[in-house]
Every structure is written in C-alpha cells, then in structure tokens.
Design goal:
- By secondary structure, the chain is of the alpha+beta class.
- It has two domains: 130 residues, Immunoglobulin-like (Sandwich), CATH 2.60.40; 110 residues.
- It is built from seven helices and eleven strands.
- The strands form three sheets. Strands 2, 5, 6, 9, 10 and 11 form a six-stranded mixed beta sheet that branches. A three-stranded antiparallel beta sheet has the order 1-3-8, with no helix packed on it. A two-stranded antiparallel ribbon has the order 4-7.
- The two termini are 37 Å apart.
- The N terminus and C terminus are likely disordered.
C-alpha cells in the first residue's frame, strides 16, 4: 500500500497508536543557526501498521511539529507552539508508513519556532509530533542556546540575503544559488551549519555523487552521526562500492533502525540523492 492510503479502522478495544521512542539532540546550539533534533517514533503496539503519517524532516516540518521551550532557571515558558498537520497528499504533504515492527527517525530543525531576540542561556526543550489522530510528546531535554561568536555572526550577516530569499534553513539547503553557480564548500568541525552545507554541496555541488570523497562527512558528529552513515551509504552506492555500502547498511540496521527505510530506498533504486545526482549528470551531458 502507498503512503497515500488511508489508515485502516482501529480495533475499538486496543487501538494502535504511536510511541515516541527517543529524542536525540546536541548539548549546545548557536542562536540564528539551525536547531536540529531527531525524534524516533514507533507504532504502539509494535505489530501495528500505520499509514498517512506526516513526515517532518530537516527540509520542512510538514506542520506536524510543536515545541515547548522553558528556561531552566526560572521555569518560564518561552515557546509553546502546537502542531497543525494537514495530511493531504494532493497538497504535497510528505507522508510515510510505519510497517509492523518498524520505527522512523526524523531529523528536524526547530530554529524557526524560536522568537527573535531570544536570550542565550540554558533551556529545556520538548518536541510534540502530531499524526492525527495521534499526538506524542517527548520528555524535556536540556540544551544551551549560545550567542554567535564574531565569526559566526559575520557568516549570519553574509548569508542573510540568501536565507531571506529561501525562508528557512531547510529551503536554503535545497535552493539553487541565485547565480546558479555550483556550491563549493569546505566545512569545519563544529560549524553550526555543517549538516546543511554538506547536503547543499551534495545537491548543488560541482561533483557527481560518485566523485565526492566520503571523508567530507567526518564533520557530521553528534546528532548528525546516524545521518552521516546514511549519506556514506549514498556515496558508496553511487560509486558502485557494494562492500562499503553493505557495511554502512549493516551499521544502520543494527544501531539506527529508524533509518532502515533510507537503506531500503537506496537498494530499490529510489534514493532522492541518487536521483538528484543522475539528473545533474544528464543536464551536463546535454
């Protein structure tokens, strides 16, 4: 069945629903930059089959994410937003299916929920995921929101026109530069924009996926470590390196099963990154 199929009727005695298994996050974020966290949701009970689940991601939250942000010292609620997903495939809502026994890890950016002028400091963050008729909320996790340093502030000012044109860091990542030049990038460890820069390079860089050195992904530590394995799998698949691809696939299935869907798409020839790379090569060959 496709992601667009309606969910089946629930057992009136023991209706299946969702469970939020985990929330993965950084200890420290820089204000003005993405605030990426990853949530993993599973069917409850595990044998249930759920369809038409809105699919938030680093590219956009599909209206399915809400945020609770509280100051650690005063317990003041700074942000309390409610999700409002519109689960309509005809409107382009990204959706997915949870097959029996499966979970889904979703890397999301909640920086757009933070108010302008938010003070640096220690906070507690909780994430709400809404997939009607189900809604799940994570336990609050401690984070630090730090003021940008001088170099980080200069970079924010440099990128401000591009970010304004895109509207969000997720759309900036996918957006072709205005002058249509390939995106050359050198990413340093600890760069608060490292994930977005690397993905932007994969999409709009001058090199085909098969020519990109997988070592560029070494900077994707912390909350990005599971996705780094997925991106490595993409690059090895593009190179036709079956042994190294299988190694990354095994790591994901053993340690990050919430990303197993990604490996399945690569294996089925349905990888979005592979499609983008192939299209880019076809354009150059014309």
């Amino acid at each position: 069945m496709s992601d667009c199929d309606a969910r089946g009727e629930r057992d009136p005695v023991e209706p299946p629903g969702l469970a939020l298994r985990s929330i993965d996050h950084e200890r420290r974020y820089v204000l003005g930059y993405p605030v990426h966290v990853a949530i993993t949701v599973c069917a409850d009970p595990p044998g249930a089959y759920l369809r038409r689940l809105p699919w938030p991601s680093w590219a956009g939250n599909a209206g399915a994410i809400g945020v609770r942000l509280v100051r650690s010292d005063t317990r003041e609620a700074v942000v309390q937003t409610e999700p409002s997903p519109v689960v309509l495939p005809e409107l382009g809502t990204p959706m997915f299916v949870l097959a029996p026994g499966a979970c889904r890890r979703m890397l999301i950016d909640v920086s757009s929920y933070l108010p302008a002028g938010l003070e640096p400091g220690s906070y507690e963050l909780a994430i709400v995921y809404d997939a009607p008729p189900d809604r799940v909320e994570s336990a609050p996790v401690p984070i630090e929101l730090a003021a940008p340093g001088p170099e980080e502030q200069r970079e924010l000012q440099r990128l401000a026109p591009e970010l304004a044109r895109a509207g969000s860091w997720g759309r900036w990542t996918s957006l072709l530069p205005e002058d249509r030049t390939p995106v050359e990038v050198r990413v340093e460890p600890g760069d608060p924009l490292r994930f977005n820069r690397i993905v932007r390079h994969l999409i709009h860089g001058p090199d085909a996926l098969c020519d990109i050195d997988p070592d560029v992904l070494d900077v994707l530590d912390g909350v990005y470590a599971p996705e780094a394995h997925g991106l490595r799998a993409e690059l090895y698949a593009a190179r036709g390196d079956a042994a190294r691809f299988a190694e990354q696939a095994a790591i994901i299935r053993a340690w990050y099963p919430g990303l197993a869907w990604w490996i399945e798409r690569i294996e089925a020839g349905q990888s979005e990154y592979g499609f983008i790379g192939a299209c880019r090569e076809r354009r150059r060959g014309q």
